[in-house]
Amino acid sequence: MAVPTLPSPLAIPSxxxxxxxxxxxxxxxxxxxxxxxxxxxxxxxxxxGGLFRSLxxxxxxxxxxxxxxxxxxxxxxxxxLGSMLVKGAxxxxxxxxxxxxxxxxxxxxxxxxxxxxxxxxxxxxxISHLGDMVPVMAGVTLTFRMRNEPRVGLVYVGDGATSTGAxxxxxxxxxxxxxxxxxxxxxxxxxxxxxxxxxxxxxxxxDKAIGYGVPGVRADGNDVLEVYRVTREAVDRARSGGGVTLxxxxxxxxxGHAEHDNQSYVAPGEIEHWAAHNDPIDxxxxxxxxxxxxxxxxxxxxxxxxxxxxxxATDQAExxxxxxxxxxxxxxxxxxxxxxxxxxxxxxxxxxxxxxxxASWGTHDG
Amino acid sequence: MAVPTLPSPLAIPSxxxxxxxxxxxxxxxxxxxxxxxxxxxxxxxxxxGGLFRSLxxxxxxxxxxxxxxxxxxxxxxxxxLGSMLVKGAxxxxxxxxxxxxxxxxxxxxxxxxxxxxxxxxxxxxxISHLGDMVPVMAGVTLTFRMRNEPRVGLVYVGDGATSTGAxxxxxxxxxxxxxxxxxxxxxxxxxxxxxxxxxxxxxxxxDKAIGYGVPGVRADGNDVLEVYRVTREAVDRARSGGGVTLxxxxxxxxxGHAEHDNQSYVAPGEIEHWAAHNDPIDxxxxxxxxxxxxxxxxxxxxxxxxxxxxxxATDQAExxxxxxxxxxxxxxxxxxxxxxxxxxxxxxxxxxxxxxxxASWGTHDG
Amino acid sequence: xxxxxxxxxxxxxxSEEMARDxxxxxxxxxxxGFGGAFKVTEGLQSxxxxxxxxxxxxxxxxxxxxxxxxxxxxxxxxxxxxxIDFVSCGYDMLTNYVATARYRAFLPCPIVVxxxxxxxxxxxxxxxxxxxxxxxxxxxxxxxxxxxxxxAKGMIKAxxxxxxxxxxxxxxxxxxxxxxxxxxGDHVVPLGKARVAREGTHLSIVTYAATVWKALEAAEQLxxxxxxxxxxxxxxxxxxxxxxxxxxxxxxxxxxxxVHEDTVTGGIAGEITARINELCFEWLDAPVRRVAAHDVPxxxxxxxxxxxxxxxxxxxxxxxWLAAY
Amino acid sequence: xxxxxxxxxxxxxxSEEMARDxxxxxxxxxxxGFGGAFKVTEGLQSxxxxxxxxxxxxxxxxxxxxxxxxxxxxxxxxxxxxxIDFVSCGYDMLTNYVATARYRAFLPCPIVVxxxxxxxxxxxxxxxxxxxxxxxxxxxxxxxxxxxxxxAKGMIKAxxxxxxxxxxxxxxxxxxxxxxxxxxGDHVVPLGKARVAREGTHLSIVTYAATVWKALEAAEQLxxxxxxxxxxxxxxxxxxxxxxxxxxxxxxxxxxxxVHEDTVTGGIAGEITARINELCFEWLDAPVRRVAAHDVPxxxxxxxxxxxxxxxxxxxxxxxWLAAY
Lengths: 366, 366, 325, 325
Ligand SMILES: Cc1ncc(C[n+]2csc(CCOP(=O)(O)OP(=O)(O)O)c2C)c(N)n1
Ligand SMILES: Cc1ncc(C[n+]2csc(CCOP(=O)(O)OP(=O)(O)O)c2C)c(N)n1
Ligand SMILES: [Mg+2]
Ligand SMILES: [Mg+2]
Description:
Chain A is built from 11 helices and 7 strands. Chain A is α/β, with parallel strands linked by helices. Helices cover 37% and strands 20% of the residues of chain C. Chain C is built from 11 helices and 14 strands.
């Protein structure tokens, strides 16, 4: 095996360290391995509900989230499992969510990766209604601007979600209020079965930037270092008072909208082409082992660690307890903390009164 | 008085005839005179509800609507009284609406100029919720495209209304569906008290056009001939399959949002400046009597005719009958044609059953 | 004739109406070549062409508004919400523009807004909703919510032919679980008429959609185990409500249980209770009682969803209480 | 202390809360220097600065969503709808994102969405609405609708301090017509508690907002002309409803008239009737009856609006019917 040549530090872009280069690899690998594990569990019918993949889009999620600090706030979508991992989400949390476990982050109320943590790790639980997270993140970052906190926010929208009124109202509000917000359009070519040409007549999504009076930057979404670079620039601009940036990351959705979708609407060979010639992990491995002189052995070791991590998380998640029916009545409001059981259920295992509302359940004071 | 020099036909822009030049003047004058009459009636408390002026914006409304044919569909807003007149709305209809008369176009259900006629004159009754007419007009024009009818639509939005999700969803839908629709942003500097700089960070509203993949054209909204020219171009493009155009007409709202608004938020002198130096009618009169050699006498005669028309319409409207309570229960649905009177009103002048639903009340067949 | 599913029945209704009337067309997200998230419109685009089965951008307010505009000019658009949960994005357009069009401006607005609704499918809070009650106090709208395959076909056809806007709810739990044999010929089920799903004499269960089937299950169990004769009324149309049918069953059994899947607070059962109160209070031998979902957003984990939603056993318990009253 | 109007009372409540708690801020259309379409926020920007009284673009979903985001990070935003009719544009954001935030993701979301509502002002179909019923089946929201100046101040303060999202309806007919003298000190009126607006023994009128005043008018007339003693309950909060207060008055008078300005079909009276049925059916000497608006979009012409909306004379007639039952 060729002796790796020590690269000159200059050769590493965006001032990243070698450890960070490896970290980026690890996050992408973890994303893919974890999703593959979810597929296995899905086939074993251990996953409740649909399974959403980000295969081939890992660089968008990982590279962009990597440009944020812990205090910064991320608003992920269904293709951004990788972003959540970078932001501190634990594999076991993801697995428990997908398996609807009683100790999952949402206690079984919400599905898949619809969960968040605004107290410590700073990512916000998404809802299904596309576009809605943009106004919400405008408000999060408005707060930082009002309180002069050097924190920024990053929100993703898909190519399809750009057609929603909520996206428009949110980015316009953020722009005019000069909120420290990065809006990332993750353009993966499809909205469910709908190709981008049926979603907009614009040639590129950054053409929308000028209409909001904000800078627009387009980048190769399958080049994790490029994604990091452009996002980092936008994040720095936001942090220094430069307001909103619209980023467009070009990538490709290699799996169906969800696991059940057979992608009948995709031109033959298209998926295979991207898999063979434009896989974000393959491309990054090439650069790591080539240009940056990483020992392939090192990457293999990382792969093994990742697999071990996922194995362990899987065992933990499988051992997790299921949800308990009456818990469903807790925490709709801070006050009252629980809803009463309906009259005809009297004495039918309604143990609501026994439950305490955990202090963490969405009150400011803790 | 200087003898007018006969102009060479070439001197008349956009292939307009001299009669049409005069017509444009007449529509602007009629708009202003009619609104002034409404102010008088408002002060006499004969107007029910608020009064909305288009003083200083008459060229936008008249010049753009003048580019449409009778078969084309117009969607006016509150500043587009002039457009409605051009499209065939009668002064007496406007007056009856404002006075909530029983024979007003909406039979007293809706206020001011919120009325339409899709059977013959082809303008659509607006609702208050800003932005909503854009998707509606996308659908109207989608129909023309589907049926291969050479008809186009024109919809207005204010500078403020461009911030709504409905505007975004509607223009994007129309663009991607290549609907024959002209979207006019009538930029009069304010949305109620909010200046444009608080509405968007974009430098101009046509900067939004590229984001929808459609042509954007900006024009002096107080030059009626220029408004006609750019609108006519957009209309021709739409009619010949060229799809959506976004027009921005620059003008200024010289009166408050409604008659009650004292415009405390306007910089001193701003209104006076526009009134003195950029009144669309004054500017047009100058060109008519100058460049186009119209005899001022002729214009004065037109003014007199207009005043006579408005006087007559006012007498008619004042003589119109008021609304009759029980009519309120008619025509919510085609079937049933009337809602029953509530139980405690039994025998309290509910004459609903006596009423027939006029065939014209919103059924295709008539 | 062969049995077809609830879902196929809707597709059959759509395609018959599109064949019958060239002004009928469909628009929605992914409804074209893909045939929609649940495949309700599968095959329609290849049969009727891209002009009449239109894939739209993700913009519920936009496409509902566009449908209204087309309807003003002689078309009869059928809009699909990928999940009915997303109709909330078109709430303004529906309640303010569409519902008032005829009344305020004499504009014809014959549109149908349809989509998969309802829970019992582990869909979580945003893919399981029953938003019907939110439109109940909107004069100008009609609301249809069929429970059988026969009604699904007959009512979608009636909805399309109706001269006013109709919200058409399709319970996704029923899509493939419920089958029926379609009557021959032009099978149209008029809106506004309820259906006696089961005759009975001791008490009445007034309900609609998926819980019709749970009510029938409960009725059988009550007959078997308690010798109770339970009448089940399937409302079918929620706006306008069929007062006659409601009053008839109350006068017959004098005991009423209203059952629905929506939350108990603010659900349609309140309106029904008020009407019974007004129209036949004297005939009541017991209070009208409600069986419905608990007042929480619908959670996703099976034990939670099962606990929140009304189950057959709940209807049985409530019926016993009512019969013994 | 001097009397102030209903509108001034709200302004006083807002400005006291902004002074007390730096996390409280206002956002909405034209609320800054202009002070809002009805001048509710007049003077607040000059007192608290542009950072805390923010003029927004015209984007109801956008500003409600932004308020939610700010609330997640420790703020207590108060959003003004220029007219409450425009809250329909934020319906998705409110019912799906805001209302479920705590339940689905343990996100704190203490926001207030307030604005002028209601008719009797010749505002027509889009400036007179009472959309409260559309939010009644949305667990996670609270709905406040005061009728007196004292409550307007005390309840806006309670709404701002509440840890959950509150819809706060301000009836524009009351803005300048109703006056009150504010109690000294930190005057907070807890949400969820109804008020006995008038004691009575023969029958009860359960109502809220503007019709509280019509009910009181009717009660006086009925006392004068018929010697009837009518109790009037002002619900004040519609979600959660004060069942105790409702049951108490039913048990006291045994006859109930529910009055509201919203349309009869789908209005909140249905829910109230159902609860009375469930909680104190045995105490009813007569059916619960409703006086409300006719089921049409609210027309603008005075004779039409007057005919559609419930009037004092309607309440009088209905009360006589109920008393004679
Ligand atoms: C308002 C709304 N309408 C419809 C849907 C249904 N839906 C879920 S995902 C999806 C496609 C999203 O495409 P895109 O925004 O490109 O994101 P991607 O899945 O490609 O990452 C649709 C239509 C939704 N979730 N929200
Ligand atoms: C969705 C919506 N939000 C708020 C309003 C209240 N409103 C009526 S007119 C207006 C300002 C409109 O400004 P612009 O669009 O510039 O039109 P202009 O009055 O200047 O012609 C506002 C905020 C409304 N009608 N609709
Ligand atoms: Mg996509
Ligand atoms: Mg303007």
